[in-house]
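PROTOCOL LOG
Step 1. Enter all chains and additional molecules of the complex.
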Amino acid sequence: MANTKNFAADFPALNQQVNGNRLVYLDSAATSMRPQSVLDAAVDFYSTKGANPHRGVYKMAEEATAAYENSRAAVASYLSIDTDELIFTRNASESLNIVMYSYALDALKPGDSIVIPVSEHHSNLVPWQRAAARTGATLEYLYVDRVTGAISDDELERKITSKTKIVAFAHVSNVLGVLFPIEKLIARAKAVGAVTVLDCAQTIAHMPLDLHALDVDFAAFSGHKMYAPMGIGGLYGKRELLARMEPFLFGGDMIEYVREQDTTFAPAPQKFEAGTQNAGGAVALAAAIDYIKAIGWDILEAREAALMRRLVAGLNGLKDVTVIGDSNPDAPRYGVVAFNLRDVHSHDVASILDSYGIAIRAGQHCAAPLMDYLQLPFKSSCRASLALYNTEEDVDRLLECLPLVRGKMGYGD
Amino acid sequence: MAIDEIYTQVITEHSRDKRNRRHIDHATRTQKGVNPSCGDEIELELREENGVITDAAFTGSGCAISQASASMMADLIRGKTLDEAESICATFLGMIKGDVTDAEQLEVLDEALALQGVSHMPARVKCATLSWHTLKTALGE
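Step 2. Run joint prediction.
Step 3. Record the structure below.
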């Protein structure tokens, strides 16, 4: 039965010992490992094609162009968008920076507001701080319910107003893990005429996305959180918005005519892809999509949901462990669960778990304002995150070793 | 295993020890230190009389390694001259960098030697050295 298949065998990096123990990798929300087929795709691109896409007129270059553009088509299809609406970038951060530099700086003026939830990752927060500082707009926060992560209608209506020009939000908080009510946010933003920016880095490998159906204006993601290599990601933008945006990187391959004193730009997406691109990364990203599709969403989602329930229920049952946010094991949770161990700093927990071969994330998770807002001890937390290759044994190993940590720290029962 | 050496009784006790975690009346030098990426923060207070550190203490919060390191440092520099404290500080930072390994030279660090294993844990180096960098800044004033 595919549902019980151990996918970990497909991922070479997972097959190793750490500090004398089997590696239990529970940090896929930071970056997911890559299956052999993805690694092979990158090697194959550089072994057999390897020329610069969009430039040469010889066979190798044409093959490289085809490989790169076929990858774009694969990613566009995965997200239910059109190929000319997908810009390849390095990662979600770069994608969000393009929206900031090429859209927000021109669109915002003093008196306007940008609205984001307080739970945003720094990559969807710092660019908006800078946009506000440079344009005279204000940055306002939606305060989420500390337990459920929900945003009240009242909060939406008070913060998203006729002054609001941009509403940016993650699909799932990389700390709270529960699905955001993004349809409500999008509807409210549309009602006031604001542009919507979705950071789907945390959901892209965990659920099917239909960006046209969601009707967001921009969406950003990273390949390395969806079984692809680091250094490839993407930005979706609505065609009419991309058409009127000024690129923020200038150079080769993004131009139409260049004369001594002026230049016209190629149409999107090329005008946002200056210089030689990460073609091998794009090809590997398409291979990662093939890998996900071959498993299928039904199996993937059911498997991850069952593991997540086991993990959250298990954490609830441990003495001295507090789950952050919604501790209901049945809450719609994608990928991550954050928790703290009483009196112990998350970095100490993570260092000690590492001695058992368990890799978890600890600290602020690039969401310092949320740590402050939640008033967490030490302004930090532990975070375990799951991917399709994790198993019940992985979850149980964490649940078995976590209670040993306080003992190592010199605390009695 | 490195981890067991680091989380020894000494460190886990020091990290919770309240003796050195206090304010000093009439402190002559106070210095804040933070590790923004992990949220560790300490405020070091020193009282110095005629070139001698007559008392040292700190307040703050953070991981066991950062707090234990600060507490051990307070014990080590109390009663020392400013020059001696500076020399102990250089020895500790040298040990964590892996530059100072000579047992005789390291003797001066006493209990803080328990943190030597941190030199093999790059991600935790800044925890162990926070209070010492703070001391260095305080002494440099």
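Step 4. Note key features.
The first strand of chain B starts at residue 29 and ends at 35.
The first helix of chain B runs from residue 2 to 6.
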